[in-house]
Amino acid sequence: MKSTELSVDTSLQQVVDITDDVAGFVRGAVDGLLSVFALHATAGLALIETGSGTEEDLVATLKSVIPRDDRYLHRHGSKGHGADHVVPALVSPSLVIPVKGGRLTLGTWQRVVLVDLNSDNPRRRVRLDLLSG
Amino acid sequence: MKSTELSVDTSLQQVVDITDDVAGFVRGAVDGLLSVFALHATAGLALIETGSGTEEDLVATLKSVIPRDDRYLHRHGSKGHGADHVVPALVSPSLVIPVKGGRLTLGTWQRVVLVDLNSDNPRRRVRLDLLSG
Amino acid sequence: MKSTELSVDTSLQQVVDITDDVAGFVRGAVDGLLSVFALHATAGLALIETGSGTEEDLVATLKSVIPRDDRYLHRHGSKGHGADHVVPALVSPSLVIPVKGGRLTLGTWQRVVLVDLNSDNPRRRVRLDLLSG
Question: Which of A23, A104, B1, B90 meets the CB 3.0–4.6 Å disulfide criterion with A133?
Answer without folding.
Answer: B1
